[in-house]
Every structure is written in C-alpha cells, then in structure tokens.
C-alpha cells in the first residue's frame, strides 16, 4: 500500500482557499488556487504568497559546525558572515548533485539548512554520517513551516505586520509577529524582490492569516507550485531532479559559480575539478520558441537534424507568451543558434539564449 501523503501545517488554509492539490515529493501540496496565469501575474506585478512548508529543514550545531559543513558542501562559507544565507550543493564523489540547498549561517556553531523536500533525509543522513563528535545534525523537517512572500509589493506587506525589510539580498534576521518568533530572509525562487519566512509549524496559520490580511490592499494572491515553476523557469533557476541531479553536475548545469574551487575539500571536488579542466560534454542552455511549440521535460533537441540534447525544464512563459526551456546541449552550440525540439512529433524551431528569459530585479 502506498504511503499516505504528508500534509503541511497550512493545509487547512489551503483547503479553505479552494486550492487544487497535487503530490509533490511525498507531500500533498497546493498546485494552484485561482489559476497559474493569474498567480504568475500577481507575483510579477503585485505580490504573491506561497506555502512551501514541504521544503526540508536541517539543523547543524556545535563547535566546528561551520567548518564541517564547509568541508562537505560545494560553496565557500568563508564568503559570508553570520546573518547571511548562501546557495550551495551537496554532491557525491562522482560530482553528481545529491541536492541543491540554502544555508542560513546563524553563527559558526549554528547553521540551518533548507534542502529540497525529496532530498532532506538523504542530505541529513550524509552529513550525520560524516560529522565529528562535536557537531550535531538534526532533521527539523516537521518543526518549521516556510511561507514565501514574493513580488514588487512584498516590502509593504511585511512592513504592515511589523516585519523588517531592510535586508540585503541573501541576508536574514529574527523578528516577531505578535508572540511568534520567526526568521525573515531576503531569498526566493521567483526572481522578484521577496522574502521567505521560516516559522514554527504551530504558529504557521497565525502568520499566514496576518500576511493575507495585510496584503489585501496590495492585491496579494495565494500561489501554488505550478506558478512557482513558471516563475523560476523564466529566471532560468534549476530544479533538482530535472536540471540538476546525480547525473547532471554543477559544471554541466552552469552552476560552477556556486562551487568554491579553491577550497581544499568538499564532496565531489576531485571529480568536478577534472571535469572542469577537461570541459563538460554538455551544458545547460536556454531555449525560446520561434513558433508555437511548448517544450516539456524529456523532449529531444536536434542540432542540424541530429538528436543532440534533451529538454530538462520546459513550459509556456506567461511573460513572453511563448514556450521556453532549459536543455542540455553540446558545448559547441552557441547563443543565437537555432535548434529543433521534437514536440509530440513536430520539429519546432527554438533559439538558443542565455537565461534569464524575464528580467525582474530581485534586489
């Protein structure tokens, strides 16, 4: 018998808003409320709010916690100070990506990690197995909820309930909504200015209700995972399991900027350095439809009529009003080239471009 889907602490709110649900990484999550196009537009033009409580949470604490995590994950924690967040990756020894995640550096002895839902347990397992006696690795998945407030009016919504908005990009602070202590971080997965609030699960409903009420004058809209996907694809942000995976390395995904190449150690370092020096055999590129074709993951990409690549993420862009995709292609394929995508048996032309496809300003 299949395991029952997990439900987040905001499930009752999602039901009350008549969300359409879908299974995602073992969770029953809101796919959409009013519809993908309306929710996408709300984030680009006003403000939208996402229940992303399915995202993983892991605490790494104790003397030497920062140095330990830095020796495991790809990016260099020496680049940031306490109160900052950092995008990084957990790789295996072959250089494949176990997961991409955000690290919140609270102090040298206290870090909060936000992996993807499906990979939280595996990231925790790998870190716990490698941790020295002084460092504790704990799974905090059920203890915390995450609410993302994204869009040009996100500052006004947070300010209306007394939350601070004087944050640089990828910085965070602790704050209160009434008696609820939470973390406010200037991060997001939409490309727009916005915040992610890490809230104790028991108080998630209270914070959600306060944000919805404060956001009403600004046209706030609850948004589901479908709009989250179109928004992140327009920015060219990778999704683990599609654009990053155990078979798709940071080099291939053009994510080498999140690798501390000068660090003495991190998981997968030797393999990734060797691949970087040799040059990856494929790279993630952007595609924009020249016609009406809508690409989907797994579709074949042809160069000069020959099968040469594959779409990893593909969708209809509500901003551009045409199909867009991320695809793994041979490294010699240049921006401006025209390739063909096999869209249900039709050879549809696409231009190779450098993401992002839309150009909002998250800062």
Can you write the helix and strand succession as a string? HEEHEEHEEEHEEHEEEHEHHEEEEEE
The overall pLDDT average reads 96
Q: Residue ranges: pLDDT <50 for 5 or more in a row? A: none
Q: Tell me the β content.
A: 25-35%
Largest sheet: 6 strands, mixed
Distance between the termini: 47 Å
Which percent bin holds the helix content? Answer: 10-25%
The side-by-side strand order for the widest beta sheet comes to 10-11-12-9-3-13
Subunit arrangement of the protein: single chain
Shape: globular
- By secondary-structure content and strand pairing, the structural class works out as alpha+beta
Query: Helix count, per DSSP?
Result: 8
Q: From the alpha carbons, calculate the radius of gyration and give it in angstroms.
A: 20 Å
Number of strands: 19
Describe this structure in words.
This protein is of the alpha+beta class and 363 residues long. The protein is built from eight helices and 19 strands. The chain is globular. The longest helix has 12 residues, at 204-215.
List strands and helices in order, with pairings.
Blueprint: H1 11-16, E1 20-24, E2 27-32, H2 36-45, E3 48-51, E4 58-61, H3 65-72, E5 84-91, E6 97-107, E7 110-114, H4 120-130, E8 136-139, E9 144-150, H5 154-160, E10 172-177, E11 180-185, E12 194-200, H6 204-215, E13 221-223, H7 225-235, H8 269-278, E14 283-289, E15 300-303, E16 306-317, E17 322-329, E18 338-343, E19 346-353
Parallel strand pairs: 3-13
Antiparallel strand pairs: 1-2, 3-9, 4-7, 4-8, 5-6, 6-7, 9-12, 10-11, 11-12, 14-17, 14-19, 15-16, 15-18, 16-17, 18-19
